[in-house]
């Protein structure tokens, strides 16, 4: 991936940070993007050749500013996301809006920022981090699941729209991965989930990062519009 620049959203921690490390190891120049600048700075110090930009995906102006600071991007990993869980009946519109704005609209606006240069150079890789629940559904997460299912629709439409320009667009649907996002689940819930995973372990951030690195590589040049499950067999 030498001579490629990869921007990873939500690279301040968790899966995004691991993706940034994996892409840097593969030779890319990496741009780490998220809201927490202290964490970004610390993360960037550990990743040789990387830089960071402040990015709030809920804010279109912040997206524009971040990408103009980042410069030309060859590989975009739309990884950042939030959850604001509640039963649908009790879900506040502001919690619906916040999750759709960050997870889906933010990803779309980020794609719009990188497309002109990718189209011009006739090479690009876009990897959208969706979720297992986009396909299975999940009670209590209507907003999050809708945003993640939306990302799959976006992936497939865009793959058809820009395939002729040698730009691939793929999605990854992680299952249960050990990160801050899943840390708050009760032990009871975790052991119930573990029982449903054929590989009998939770995923590691490295499991997802390896899939991202592959889809971003030249070796994956004939794969587009694909939804790659990284879930230990939890949903087939
Ligand atoms: P995480 O530990 O909660 O990290 C989320 C990342 O997103 C952080 O770096 C956060 O950085 C960033 N972020 C949140 N809101 C943002 C905003 N408005 N603008 C910019 N960045 C923002 O989550 P994770 O578990 O690593 O998840 C990464 C991706 O995998 C997400 O898309 C998630 O939905 C998906 N996923 C995770 C699992 C799992 O089991 N963990 C399963 C399926 C899918 P700042 O707070 O610094 O902004």
Tell me what the structure shows.
By secondary structure, the chain is an alpha/beta fold. It has a single domain, classed as NAD(P)-binding Rossmann-like Domain (Rossmann fold, 3-Layer(aba) Sandwich). It is built from nine helices and seven strands. The protein has helices at residues 14-25, 37-46, 60-70, 93-121, 133-136, 142-162, 180-183, 187-195, 205-216; strands at 5-9, 29-34, 51-54, 75-78, 124-129, 167-174, 227-230. A seven-stranded parallel beta sheet has the order 3-2-1-4-5-6-7, sandwiched between helices. The longest helix has 29 residues, at 93-121. Residues 9-10, 12-16, 34-36, 39, 55-58, 79-82, 102, 129, 131-132, 174, 176-177, 179-182 line the site of NADP nicotinamide-adenine-dinucleotide phosphate.
Number of helices: 9
Taken as a percent bin, the fraction of beta residues is: 15-25%
CATH fold category name: Rossmann fold
**Helix proportion:** 40-55%
Report the structural category: alpha/beta
Text of the CATH class:
Alpha Beta
Nearest-angstrom radius of gyration? 17 Å
The strands making up the biggest β-sheet line up spatially as 3-2-1-4-5-6-7
Q: What is the element string, with H for helices and E for strands?
A: EHEHEHEHEHHEHHHE
CATH superfamily: NAD(P)-binding Rossmann-like Domain
β-strand number: 7
Count of the separate structural domains: 1
Note the overall shape: globular
Bound molecule types? NADP nicotinamide-adenine-dinucleotide phosphate
Ranges with pLDDT <50 over ≥5 residues? none
């Amino acid at each position: 991936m030498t001579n490629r620049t990869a921007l990873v959203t939500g690279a301040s921690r968790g899966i995004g940070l691991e993706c940034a490390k994996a892409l840097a190891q593969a030779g890319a120049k990496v741009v780490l993007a998220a809201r927490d600048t202290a964490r970004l700075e610390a993360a960037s110090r550990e990743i040789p050749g990387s830089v960071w930009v402040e990015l709030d995906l809920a804010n279109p102006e912040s997206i524009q500013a971040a990408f103009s600071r980042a410069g030309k991007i060859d590989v975009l990993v739309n990884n950042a996301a939030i959850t604001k869980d509640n039963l649908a009946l009790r879900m506040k519109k502001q919690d619906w809006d916040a999750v759709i704005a960050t997870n889906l609209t933010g990803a779309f606006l980020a794609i719009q920022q990188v497309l002109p240069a990718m189209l011009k150079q006739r090479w690009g890789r876009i990897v959208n981090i969706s979720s297992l629940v986009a396909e299975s559904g999940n009670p209590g997460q209507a907003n999050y699941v809708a945003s993640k299912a939306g990302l799959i629709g976006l992936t497939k439409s865009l793959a058809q729209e820009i395939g002729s320009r040698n730009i691939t667009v793929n999605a990854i649907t992680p299952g249960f991965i050990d990160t801050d996002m899943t840390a708050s689940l009760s032990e009871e819930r975790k052991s119930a989930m573990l029982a449903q995973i054929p590989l009998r372990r939770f995923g590691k951030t490295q499991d997802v990062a390896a899939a991202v690195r592959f889809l971003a590589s030249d070796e994956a040049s004939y794969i587009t519009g694909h939804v790659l499950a990284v879930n230990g067999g939890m949903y087939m």
